[in-house]
């Protein structure tokens, strides 16, 4: 009886887990500094703000699903004069479609390819939470100058396992988001910022990812942001300064 109940629970969670991973908000991103572009025949939507700096930043948000919730991260680059291109996720903020790991990763590569065709200078990828998996995925397959990660995970299915008491990384049809698998293909310097009070993605996951990158021979800078939670990390004092110092610390050409 207990085994049958557990198997039924597992089946329900396999079907329902995308709704848990992608609880996207409906608030539209309405910032006059940005324009929206449809950048491929996949109908990929990107919000872009032009800057004067040689660096351009391709930003991947968390699972809030609307760029309206990520103004601190966007401001960090706009204030520094960088061009910012931010992927808008299908199913969030009024964007048509249904999100999935495979689809979002394909959209992220399409957004990079469009930005690379528009921008002559180097490109940095920046991800927050869910978006760190997209940033790492792109950096493992495209030429990027640096990788910025806020509150990253090693594998999202490990977090699902902890929250559901199911072996999510081994269940069929589960979207697993294995960032660790892409680490060997990275070759750009990495900045990780993670809050010590983050309960959604505990800082230990960011530390494990940083260690794996260090073992792979990457240049990794890991900042423990004292007292920061998952949702207020980008609003903490020093957040922008750390990004600026990191990006100013290596050659752009």
From TrEMBL:
GO molecular function annotation: hydrolase activity
InterPro entries according to UniProt: AB_hydrolase_fold, Dienelactn_hydro
Annotated Gene3D superfamilies: alpha/beta hydrolase
Pfam families membership: DLH
PANTHER family: ALPHA/BETA HYDROLASE DOMAIN-CONTAINING PROTEIN (PTHR12277)
Domain Dienelactone hydrolase: 103-233
UniProt name for this protein: Dienelactone hydrolase domain-containing protein
Source organism: Yoonia rosea
């Amino acid at each position: 009886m207990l085994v049958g109940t557990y198997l039924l629970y597992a089946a329900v969670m396999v079907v329902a887990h995308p709704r848990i991973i992608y609880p996207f908000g409906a608030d539209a991103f309405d910032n006059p500094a940005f324009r929206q572009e449809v950048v491929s025949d996949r109908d990929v939507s990107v919000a872009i703000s032009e800057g004067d700096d040689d660096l351009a930043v391709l930003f991947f948000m968390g699972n809030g699903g609307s760029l309206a919730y990520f103004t601190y991260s966007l401001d960090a680059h706009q204030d520094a004069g960088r061009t910012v291109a931010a992927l808008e996720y299908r199913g969030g903020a009024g964007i048509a479609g249904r999100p999935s790991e495979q689809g979002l990763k394909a959209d992220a590569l399409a957004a990079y390819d469009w930005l690379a065709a528009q921008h002559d200078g180097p490109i940095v990828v920046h991800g927050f939470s869910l978006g760190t998996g997209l940033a790492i995925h792109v950096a493992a397959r495209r030429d990027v100058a640096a990788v910025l990660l806020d509150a990253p995970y090693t594998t999202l299915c490990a977090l699902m396992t902890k929250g559901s008491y199911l072996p999510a990384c081994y269940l069929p049809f589960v979207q697993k988001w294995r960032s660790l698998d892409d680490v060997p293909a990275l070759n750009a310097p990495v900045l990780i910022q993670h809050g010590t009070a983050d309960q959604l993605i505990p800082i230990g996951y960011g530390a494990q990812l940083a260690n794996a990158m260090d073992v792979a021979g990457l240049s990794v800078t890991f900042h423990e942001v004292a007292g920061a939670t998952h949702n207020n990390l980008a609003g903490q004092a020093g957040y922008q300064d750390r990004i600026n110092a990191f990006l100013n610390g290596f050659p752009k050409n």
